[in-house]
């Protein structure tokens, strides 16, 4: 079974040194309450909960799975008890507003806890995972009555939330949904339809489940402009606010999946279930985006969490596994063979995982600062600036970190050789669990279209310029710093090229919109690699300064520089392939005829 230790030293480096979280927290309203002691307590207790409570349940949950009987779903053994402990420890309320029963701590601290949970037991973590997003949607768009009925319960964690979008005949194209909401004449609606792929749609961990459901009113316009959002609880709250009458929403079946077996992925049937409109009629998609954006960042963290676990375990194996002698000569003369960590290709696989884990952590915590500013800052200008950057980086977090996570877990399995393919080592579960992260909450292709089409080209690249200017200023400030040329020069060149590629795609798209789709995934991956390069360069600068100041942890900081160097020399060149694909355009993709595909009709 894989082991896991929360990477507390690296977390503290990113939070305290790279991104200066103490100053960041102090700048927020109420930030004086976020003392170093509070942050340390969250990190240390979160690490203990992940390792001692969740990790031992991970393999068991994968093997046992969930059980459906008479419409009721039972989670794997130990999951319910772990969730009760999670609630008792106050983890669900960590970053929620105090007016709704929360602790009011910055959202970035909740992201740190989320990484630990995803690293130790992804399937379990998905049960409370969407509750925060459901609470945010109700906080921003719900009525006072809805907040009173549902929000506090979600914040406490005694109720959990879901997001019900997808239907059997449509995935991302939500304009095609068929679920209907008919007014019941008493301020409510009767919701009828079927939703699929609903994570934690039915379970026995919490006393109630609050479904946020997209549906169409009888007179709704066609397409996505006719979607409304409804809150549909499993149990209707009684006069005391406790679970009362069972609503007409049931789990029809559990999906049989490649991974995340410990989480109940449900087909949910709404048979005239009582629901209540959230926000304005036909504006449901805008309301749901509050939840979807939080979920997208959460899924990116899932990719990061699995990357970290894969790295830790393949590193431990590589230190112990004996095979062959090093090409440069024997390294462990007292042993019949050398540990495989001496071999260059094993180091390549380990360092790829390490770079994705450390780079991904920097990106997530950078984004966490932006979320804090958007949610808490009193400065409207700061909030607008942070919201623009957050919009730009969210699809990168979701898609790039999940693509990285799948690559990393496959590399981790490869380090184990044939043993990686055997279930008892746990590495194949990481691969299976990671694969879904590239799919849900919008596939890589959907995130890429969002990034290039909506976030970049729609405003003629103005939002991108906000970020590239930040990178440019860093490069200017560091261009003469000792030891920084190897990072700053390639970063500055790519940063400039990023803007040029954007302009070139935009020009092509003016005459052919298919050029956006043809370039989008390569554009997103290119963007991800450049973004991590910026953060690695900043990390190298901080590490070099610490070494120059005579730090007693010189080995830790030198490892930071070495990882940054590996990233720049061995991973950042991947941008060359993405750049060439972007410039190739869509002609070779779209020139394929119907006969070439054997379709029998034109496309």
Largest sheet: 7 strands, mixed
Give the proportion of residues in helices: 55-70%
Tell me the span between the first and last alpha carbons: 49 Å
The radius of gyration over CA amounts to 25 Å
List its traits.
20 helices, 11% strand, 603 residues, alpha+beta, 7-stranded mixed beta sheet, single chain, two-stranded antiparallel ribbon
In short:
This protein is α+β, with helices and mostly antiparallel strands and 603 residues long. The protein has helices at 8-18, 21-26, 36-64, 79-88, 107-120, 122-129, 131-141, 144-156, 284-320, 344-376, 380-415, 427-435, 444-456, 462-478, 485-511, 514-548, 554-571, 574-584, 587-590, 594-597, and strands spanning 67-69, 72-74, 159-164, 180-183, 189-199, 208-215, 228-233, 235-237, 243-246, 249-254, 265-278. Helix 5 (107-120) packs antiparallel against helix 10, helix 9 packs antiparallel against helix 12 (427-435) and helix 16 packs antiparallel against helix 17 (554-571).
């Amino acid at each position: 079974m894989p082991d896991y230790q929360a990477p507390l030293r690296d977390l503290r480096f990113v939070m305290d040194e790279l991104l200066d979280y103490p100053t960041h927290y102090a700048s927020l309203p109420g930030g004086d309450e976020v003392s170093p002691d509070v942050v340390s307590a969250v990190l240390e207790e979160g690490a203990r909960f992940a390792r001692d409570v969740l990790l031992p349940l991970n393999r068991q949950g994968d093997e046992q799975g969930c059980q459906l009987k008479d419409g009721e779903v039972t989670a794997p053994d130990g999951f319910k008890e772990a969730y009760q402990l999670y609630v008792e420890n106050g983890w669900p309320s960590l970053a929620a507003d105090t007016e709704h029963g929360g602790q009011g701590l910055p959202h970035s601290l909740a992201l740190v806890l989320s990484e630990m949970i995803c690293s130790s037991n992804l399937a379990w973590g998905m049960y409370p995972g969407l509750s925060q997003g459901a609470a945010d949607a109700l906080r921003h768009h719900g009525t006072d009555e809805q907040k009173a009925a549902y929000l506090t319960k979600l914040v406490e964690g005694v109720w959990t939330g879901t997001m019900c979008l997808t239907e059997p005949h449509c995935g991302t194209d939500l304009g095609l949904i068929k679920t209907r909401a008919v007014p019941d004449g008493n301020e409510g609606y009767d919701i009828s339809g079927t939703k699929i792929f609903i994570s934690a749609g039915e379970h026995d961990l919490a006393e109630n489940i609050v479904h946020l459901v997209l549906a169409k009113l009888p007179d709704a316009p066609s397409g996505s402009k006719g979607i409304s959002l409804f809150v549909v609880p499993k149990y209707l709250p009684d006069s005391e606010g406790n679970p009362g009458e069972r609503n007409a929403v049931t789990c029809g079946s559990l999906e049989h999946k490649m991974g995340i077996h410990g989480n109940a992925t449900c087909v949910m049937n709404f048979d005239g279930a009582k629901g209540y409109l959230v926000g304005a009629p036909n504006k449901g998609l805008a309301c749901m985006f509050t939840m979807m954006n939080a979920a997208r960042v959460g899924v990116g963290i899932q990719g990061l969490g699995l990357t970290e676990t894969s790295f830790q375990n393949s590193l431990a194996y590589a230190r112990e596994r004996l095979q062959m002698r090093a090409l440069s000569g024997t390294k462990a003369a007292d042993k019949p063979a050398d540990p495989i960590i001496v071999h260059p290709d094993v180091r390549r696989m380990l360092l790829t995982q390490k770079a994705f884990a450390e780079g991904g952590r920097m990106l997530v915590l950078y984004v966490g600062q932006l979320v804090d500013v958007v949610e808490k800052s009193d400065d409207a200008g700061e909030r607008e600036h942070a919201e623009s950057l957050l919009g730009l980086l969210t699809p990168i977090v979701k898609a790039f970190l999940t693509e990285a996570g799948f690559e990393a877990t496959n590399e981790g399995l490869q380090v184990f050789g044939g043993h990686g393919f055997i279930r008892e080592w746990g590495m194949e579960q990481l691969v299976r669990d990671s694969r879904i992260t590239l799919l849900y909450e919008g596939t890589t292709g959907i995130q890429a279209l969002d990034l290039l089409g909506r976030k970049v080209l729609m405003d003629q690249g103005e939002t991108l310029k906000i970020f590239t200017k930040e990178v440019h200023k860093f490069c200017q400030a560091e261009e003469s710093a000792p030891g920084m040329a190897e990072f700053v020069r390639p970063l500055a060149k790519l940063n400039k090229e990023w803007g040029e590629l954007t302009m070139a795609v935009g020009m092509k798209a003016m005459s052919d919109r298919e050029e956006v789709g043809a370039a989008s995934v390569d554009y997103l991956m290119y963007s991800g690699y450049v973004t991590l390069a910026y953060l690695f360069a900043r990390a190298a600068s901080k590490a070099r300064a610490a070494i120059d100041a005579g730090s007693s942890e010189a080995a830790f900081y030198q490892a930071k520089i070495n990882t940054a160097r590996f990233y720049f020399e061995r991973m950042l060149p991947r941008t060359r392939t993405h750049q060439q694909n972007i410039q190739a355009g869509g002609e070779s993709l779209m020139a394929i005829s119907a006969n070439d595909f054997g379709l029998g009709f034109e496309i």
